[in-house]
């Protein structure tokens, strides 16, 4: 039976990835609290505008601009929450992202702290200054507010007027606080931006600008987000859960993941309630979020791919176009249009698949619509890895397999070749039991130029990521440390994720080859760091009830 959630008490950015609900624009504000009383008044005013998870019956019922709010630990401290409530918060949340930099791979683990002074000099000024003092400094980030907006007119890349209206409303609230709450206008590389702007990447089709699901490297993104109990109505859940939930055995098929993996106060996959502080009502229906600004070195990525593709083309006797597309897919785990390697493993099959599904329609708008129809279908996520343990179809170290291991890590599954048949082992009983506790809700949008024009490393572009779950340590930090910045679980040794990994010391990505093809494996050996963190912190996203408790100053742990 589907779990019934109090959607009016849950903030809307938890179950919804706004970008997939026709909100291609966002502004992320970071605020500082100087006075607790004024801070509580500010929170109460924002509360009245917060977008909840209540379902929209139709497109006409969607708000033109959403509003959501979250707090760092220091923000809760500055709002004068009781000591007992603050003390029982998760230690990871209390420490914050900057103090966890060694764990996350944001600092060089081969250097000591004494030798690594100024390690965050490449971060945006707002994040360099954050948490630099005793906890109540004027530069500390206390509040995160996101505004997500719809298109003003189809065919343009302009947001609705309500985005600027809500921005002006926020400015007005800060002005009315008499310095009690202020916007930290230190975003961007030069620290001169009022907010972190973000938007979908648009493509121009005969003068019409159409938002796409791509990021600045050119990959189709945001496909396999997990589905949890109560997130969708029963009928919609039956379709949405395919490939995005958990697969416990072949007979039962795909099931939604337990709500408590993503929303506090509900049973998780261990059939326990996730740990919370006191009082329980304060954290019920909330969750934690890691905000990370991830800069993409597009120039370096393109140069490395070009060099590797030349060697791959010569080794495999294929065209440069096939070599480039194949290596990109072998790094990501999907072809550039989102088709998974686990389903369509070769370039020839991929080209034919695109033709069969109208991805190459002469009308670019029809081609884009055909691709969108495929991306919204279960087919794009309905696959597994237990029948590809050697990584002949999708390399074990590919980004997609690291982020969502599916049934690959089932200890009952076998790797290698069955000597009796000469075929790779196929174990139909493999399940995702070891993966279901590491899933993360991914939210956010690209930032930078809203197109796919040529970019360099110096261009301001990347992805503003919000990663959500009830345990920052067990979910986000585990995946970031063990699966992104390390490779042993994937028989990759110290090789990091080919896309997100730090490649200062390890530069390889192995592309296995099926012996039946007669082709040798290929080892990409020139990888560089393509994605750099430019700052961020950990936040608590409270329920509507908790926001009211904060604004009234009645968070009573007894």
Write up what this structure looks like.
The structure is a single chain. The protein has about 550 residues and is an alpha+beta fold. It has 16 helices and 15 strands. The strands form five sheets. Strands 1, 2, 3, 4 and 5 form a five-stranded antiparallel β-sheet that branches. α1 runs antiparallel to α16 and α10 crosses α11. It starts with about 25 loop residues before the first strand and ends in a 6-residue tail after the last helix.
Q: Outline of this structure?
A:
The chain is α+β, with helices and mostly antiparallel strands and 558 residues long. It has helices at 36-47, 73-78, 83-87, 91-95, 101-104, 125-129, 161-176, 234-240, 280-283, 298-316, 320-332, 347-356, 364-375, 399-403, 472-484, 544-552, and strands at 25-33, 65-71, 143-149, 181-183, 196-199, 201-205, 208-212, 246-247, 254-255, 287-296, 441-447, 462-469, 509-511, 522-524, 531-541.
Low-confidence stretches: none
How much strand content do the residues show? 15-25%
Radius of gyration: 23 Å
**What quaternary form is this?**
single chain
Q: Which structural class do you get from the secondary structure elements?
A: alpha+beta
Query: What is the count of β-strands?
Result: 15
The total count of helices amounts to: 16
**Mean residue pLDDT:** 93
Largest sheet: 5 strands, antiparallel
Q: Percent helix among the residues? A: 25-40%
Termini separation: 34 Å
CA-based shape: globular
Which keywords apply here?
558 residues; 16 helices; alpha+beta; 15 strands; 5-stranded antiparallel sheet; 4-stranded antiparallel sheet; globular
């Amino acid at each position: 039976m589907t779990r019934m959630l109090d959607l009016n008490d849950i903030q809307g950015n938890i179950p919804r990835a706004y970008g997939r609900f026709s909100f291609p624009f966002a502004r992320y504000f970071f605020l500082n609290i100087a006075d607790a009383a004024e801070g509580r008044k500010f929170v109460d005013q924002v509360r009245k505008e917060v977008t909840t998870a209540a379902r929209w019956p139709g497109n006409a019922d969607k708000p033109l601009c959403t509003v959501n709010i979250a707090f760092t630990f220091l923000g809760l401290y500055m709002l004068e929450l009781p000591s007992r409530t603050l003390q029982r918060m998760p230690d990871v949340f209390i420490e914050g992202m900057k103090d966890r930099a060694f764990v996350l791979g944001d600092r060089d683990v081969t250097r000591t702290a004494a030798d690594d002074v100024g390690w965050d000099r490449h971060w945006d000024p707002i994040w360099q200054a954050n948490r630099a003092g005793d906890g109540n400094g004027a530069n500390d980030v206390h509040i995160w507010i996101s505004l997500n907006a719809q298109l003003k007119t189809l065919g343009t890349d302009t947001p609705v007027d309500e985005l600027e209206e809500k921005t002006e409303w926020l400015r007005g609230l800060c002005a009315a606080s008499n310095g009690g709450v202020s916007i930290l206008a230190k975003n961007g590389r030069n620290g001169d931006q009022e907010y972190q702007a973000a938007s979908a990447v648009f493509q121009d089709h005969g003068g019409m600008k159409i938002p796409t699901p791509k990021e600045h490297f050119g990959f189709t993104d945001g496909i396999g987000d997990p589905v949890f109990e109560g997130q969708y109505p029963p009928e919609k859940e039956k379709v949405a859960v395919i490939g995005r939930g958990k697969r416990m055995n072949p007979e039962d098929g795909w099931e939604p993941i337990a709500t408590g993996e993503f929303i506090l106060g509900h049973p998780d996959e261990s059939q326990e309630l996730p740990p919370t502080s006191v009082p329980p009502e304060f954290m019920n229906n909330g969750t934690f979020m890691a905000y990370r600004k991830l800069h993409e070195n597009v120039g370096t990525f393109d140069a490395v791919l070009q060099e590797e593709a030349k060697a791959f083309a010569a080794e495999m006797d294929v065209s440069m176009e096939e070599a480039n597309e194949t290596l990109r897919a072998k790094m990501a785990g999907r072809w550039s249009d989102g088709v998974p390697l686990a389903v369509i493993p070769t370039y020839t099959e991929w080209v034919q698949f695109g033709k069969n599904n109208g991805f190459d329609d002469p009308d670019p708008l029809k081609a884009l619509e055909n691709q969108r129809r495929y991306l919204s279908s279960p087919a794009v996520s309905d696959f597994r890895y237990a029948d590809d343990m050697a990584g002949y179809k999708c390399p074990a170290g590919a980004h997609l397999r690291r982020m969502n291991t599916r049934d690959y890590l089932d200890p009952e599954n076998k790797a290698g070749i069955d000597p009796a048949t000469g075929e790779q082992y196929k174990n139909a009983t493999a399940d995702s039991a070891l993966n279901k506790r590491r899933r993360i809700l991914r939210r956010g949008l690209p930032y930078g130029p809203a197109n796919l024009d040529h970019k360099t490393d110096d261009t301001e572009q990347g992805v503003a990521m919000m990663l959500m779950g009830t345990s920052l340590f067990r979910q986000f930090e585990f995946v970031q440390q063990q699966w992104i910045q390390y490779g042993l679980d994937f028989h990759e040794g110290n090789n990091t994720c080919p896309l997100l990994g730090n490649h200062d010391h390890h530069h390889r990505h192995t592309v296995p080859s099926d012996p039946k093809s007669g082709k040798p494996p290929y080892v990409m050996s020139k990888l560089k760091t393509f994605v750099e963190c430019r700052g961020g912190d950990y936040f608590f996203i409270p329920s509507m009830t908790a926001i009211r408790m904060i604004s009234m100053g009645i968070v009573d742990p007894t």
